[in-house]
Amino acid sequence: MKIPLSTQKTEPTDRKVCWLCLRTGLYLLFLALFIVFSAGSPVGALVLPRQKQSIPTTLIISEFRTRGSNAGSDEFVEIFNPTQYPVNLRNWQIKRSSSGGSTYVWHAFPDAGLSLAPGAYYLVAGENYDDSVTEDTTHNTGSGIANDGGLALVDEFGSVVDKVGMSSGSAYLEGSTLPPLTTDTDQGYARVNVCEDTRNNAADFILVNPSQPQNAHSATTLCPVPTPTYTPTVTPDYYKSILINEVAWGGTLADGSAGQWIELYNSSGAEVTVDGWHLTAGDGNPDIVLSGVVPADGYYLLARRPDVFTPLTTALPTPLPTALPIDQPFPDSLDADGETLYLYAKQADGSFLLVDTANQEGGPWPSGRGFAPYASMERNGDLNETDLSWLTFAGTPDVYDRGGNLVNGSPGKRNWGIGQIPTLTPSTPPTPTFTATLTPTLTPTSTPSPTPTPSSTPSAFMSVIINEVAWMGTAHSGYDEWIELYNPGSAEIDITGWKITLDDANFIALSGKIGAGAYFVLENGSDATTYAENQTFTGSISNDGKKMKLLSGATLIDSANLDGGIWPAGNKDTYCSMERYRSNSKESSSTSENLLAWVTNSGYVRTAKDAAGNDICGSPGYRNWAYDVTITPTPLKSITPSRTPTRTRTPTPNKATPEAVVLNEFLPHPRQDWNEDGAVDVRDEFIEIINLGNTSLSLKGWKLDDQEGDSPAYTLPSVEIAPGGKLVLCGAETGLLLGNQGDTLRLFKSNGKIADAFTYGPVSRADTSWCRLPDGKEWLFGCVPSPLLPNALTSQENGETLEPLVCQNQSLPPALSLAECASPGLQLWNLSLWEAGETFFPFRLWLQGREVNIE
């Protein structure tokens, strides 16, 4: 289950809404003026109610200060989600402006994404922030906020969604300015009402002393939903009958993502008019305005092309199948990486009511395919939409796309998946000849069964899971260990009387409660991390590995490293935690299964600091980094364990993987002419190999291949690679096509055994590589393509995020060009698509910076 940052605890509105009563008289005055002016409006003019303008529809800046009692860098920005749905912060930014209008990035949220729940807060602070409420993160780019400047909250598409200014020259300002904060005093500007935005800074904010920041763990403040004051023309429960029934986010075989389509279904016995309704993504793109009628027990089709189901070929049976008409076209594409869809019904008073959702838990699409066979994501009839409400179409298709290909879905018809229950099937462990993708897949069962109900039984197996273990401590001290528990269920669980054991010896006696979808962090001492722990413990966790169990009485609830021996993940040199790969990843006494249940945190997403102010390489109290990635775990069980007696941080040299020659970097989605053949195409994909050993090694008979069954394997040239040397091979040489929607890359020795392998998921940015950072170490996405050079993460200049590169390919037909160039692009498995059948350019290969001829 995908978990938002904060638990869904509903509290009465707090100090930020108490000012509302003081302004009621003003509101009545404004309303009277509105009525007077509206009465004189010309016929046909669109006059919006003031209330509609004041209700925030996306995230807002709820409190901030530009300096505090600890001087200029004692600053913070608090953001708030006033909506009724979670908002993903992936690639959002907080920007700052000078008094002269120059703008810079102050904080860039990572592309891994953080989901901010309805009514939740998130606190980003400056370097010298010293308030008692712990910041969720420290700002990560540029200098501090100018006292007489401004602030803006910017979404992932670069649109400013909220702004505030302290001078007329600021680039970010709404209405009247706020006086600058010029003294070293604990004060700041807070919203009068977090559930209101009048678009006038002077009216929306008030000076508070002392500051009152809130973070992701503060009680939520749920904003009210407007109550309709009209009598609907249909039954009061009409909205319950309209479902988002099918989403083909991958599109069709003929058009790729340009052929995306969506189906709504009316389960009632009466038609429903949907004029003015909105089907919108959580980020606002697309935002589709509906019109027309959904028939009783009927369907309503939306598609990016009005002719997506109109066959144009004569290769089909005669007579040609009847074209399937589209009720509502939409131009903007769905995000292939996944996004949440919301269906809103327009009320008679102009307000909107949430009707249904798709992928409401956020993250990747729970079902469907973004490449051949382009199967749709189908609803199984479940009215309470969750990830388990969706299946990947596996029925018998009978509708054709524009190219005469069968559409793997059921547009305009009863879903194949009605009544079927998806089950999470664990992925296959790696074998000596194949590295499996570890992403769980949804597989429909053949026999319908009741929808499973989340268990609230306190002693049920995995009702609480050991979610993260920092057995190695932190960079400040190896004894600053911490453990995170997680409740994946829908009910609060009291763990008082439970215990954690190490090698069956009592270690921690637990006390407290874990809310539904919430975390419980235990720390060795009270200052191991800046996260506010739920409980402390004494004693130490051995670096050599222990069998950790979570018990309720004698009942096993969960375990970590159940087979004993060295820990299956975590890194004592980088102090990176051991994270659960998925909340449903089960352990057993099998070493291979436990390797699939745990991964080492990459350090890519930082959520807390240690006692010395260093970033924690882990996510205490937050969603695991591993939940959002597809990775291949390193077989740590084969490494001889070692233990530092003093457990203090000692610099150690980079350790190579067990093999001397390994994969080091690869670029699946190029947008520059990396092989210097004068064209930008899939032949510019490259793979870099590095020799981490101390002696030269011959690559004669070695091979490269992607996932089994795709491109033919490529035999490496018979060359020697020196110690520390690198070999770079472009797609023009290898013929391997790295899938943009995910693939597996494998390096084989001359004896046919795998030397190294890596499985990755969808590529979210063009001209961005996967690389080991530093060379030969942990895999990360977000690297600057650097063939033959040291690996590095994407850089930034002048505090601004670099603009994405523009697709430069001009050789594809329009439909294929759109499919390939649209982020994140689709997989193109046939090189002839790029050059209309032209022969390959001469093979070229780089070795130690020199071009080598290949016979």
Q: What is the total tally of β strands?
A: 51
Specify the overall morphology. globular
Mean of the pLDDT scores? 74
Q: What is the terminal-to-terminal distance?
A: 53 Å
Largest sheet entry: 7 strands, antiparallel
Low-confidence stretches: 1-53, 226-236, 421-458, 630-658, 795-855
Q: Could you estimate the helical fraction of the residues in percent?
A: under 10%
Radius of gyration: 28 Å
Structural class: mainly beta
Major sheet strand order = 49-48-39-40-45-50-51
Quick overview of this protein structure:
The protein has 855 residues and is mainly beta. It is built from seven helices and 51 strands. A hairpin with a 5-residue loop joins strand 9 and strand 10.
List keywords for this structure.
6% helix, 855 residues, disordered N terminus, 25% strand, mainly beta
Describe this structure in words.
This protein is mainly beta and 855 residues long. 6% of the residues lie in helices and 25% in strands. It is built from seven helices and 51 strands. Strands 49-48-39-40-45-50-51 form a seven-stranded antiparallel sheet. A six-stranded mixed sheet has the order 8-7-2-1-11-12. Strand 50 (845-847) and strand 51 (850-851) form a beta hairpin. The relative contact order is 0.08.
